[in-house]
């Protein structure tokens, strides 16, 4: 399977044999447990992530099909699916980090992850050092004997900085430190961090993997059996397991992931380049633009530049709020990675816990708008953005 292209692998999911034939589409095994004829098989299934199905919190055929499909796309040996992205991230952090350990992380991180690390630090004595996303020398300088993890994001939210995965992962490996990469924004279509030296890849499957804004999910993919087994046994104890229907919705959505990513990226290029030329816009942040600080690195690392970008309105906070009111097609909503175009104002929503200094350090302004571009026709999206922007210009008397 691994010699096939991602487009082909996404479509051809594992198919279980049932009485001599196989269902084309993976069935939903809506059961909490399994019965046994042989007590020895029952006993064996309890202790292994790849053994007989025993109990739904340990494993389920629909959930395992999702795990195998994501592991296949990411080039990992195995995966653990969870009920949300934070379920995957917390399972990995809690399974691999102990009190007194040290974590080096790229900053700023996705808000939920930053909170999880802050909590580990305050309540469990885990030290955390933040470094820039493309500075292997800073990782080398930060590493201590107690350093256990390096935590990165392929493309960060909302300013879309791209991590120097080869440089950062190699530095961690030399120091004997495990690297975890949140690959939610890139998806395995744009980047497979294990190919660049990562040990664990985490996803919010709520976003691009499922792709239809109808399910919450998470997945952690592993480069080694040992890491897989450690996190699997922790995640099932934590109760992070997804239900079979959520796993099935994610699997179903993933079959069109490569097709969707192509359109997300193409639409983003249209919007980002045209917004950059509009007088109401002071800056556009997307690694596909030569003005973005990550452009050169992104062009080397990724075949395309992703479906999320941000832009700053020259009119600041007032213009940001007015833009939100004026768009008609784009929806004012959290999340990303679905077929619909969604916008939000980071300073008052996703990043509201940052004070003015932290916002400025993250490059987020009062007039910054984040756009998660959908798969609509790009001209319809541009017409919507343009009418909203032209309305702003009218207000300013420009
Ligand atoms: C949404 C998101 C998460 C959290 O995932 P949930 O499915 O909401 O729990 C983690 N990382 C990134 C980059 C995300 O966008």
UniProtKB/TrEMBL annotation:
Enzyme nomenclature, EC number: 4.4.1.2
GO biological process: cysteine biosynthetic process via cystathionine; transsulfuration
InterPro entries on file: Cys/Met-Metab_PyrdxlP-dep_enz, PyrdxlP-dep_Trfase, PyrdxlP-dep_Trfase_major, PyrdxlP-dep_Trfase_small
Keywords: Aminotransferase, Pyridoxal phosphate, Transferase
Keyword Transit peptide (UniProt): no
Chemical reaction(s) catalysed: L-methionine + H2O = methanethiol + 2-oxobutanoate + NH4(+); L-homocysteine + H2O = 2-oxobutanoate + hydrogen sulfide + NH4(+) + H(+)
Gene Ontology CC: one annotated term: cytoplasm
Modified positions (N6-(pyridoxal phosphate)lysine) in chain numbering: 207
One term of GO molecular function: homocysteine desulfhydrase activity
Enzyme class: lyase
Gene3D superfamilies linked: Aspartate Aminotransferase, domain 1, Type I PLP-dependent aspartate aminotransferase-like (Major domain)
UniProt family annotation: Belongs to the trans-sulfuration enzymes family.
Name the UniProt record assigns to this protein: homocysteine desulfhydrase
Biological source species: Microbispora oryzae
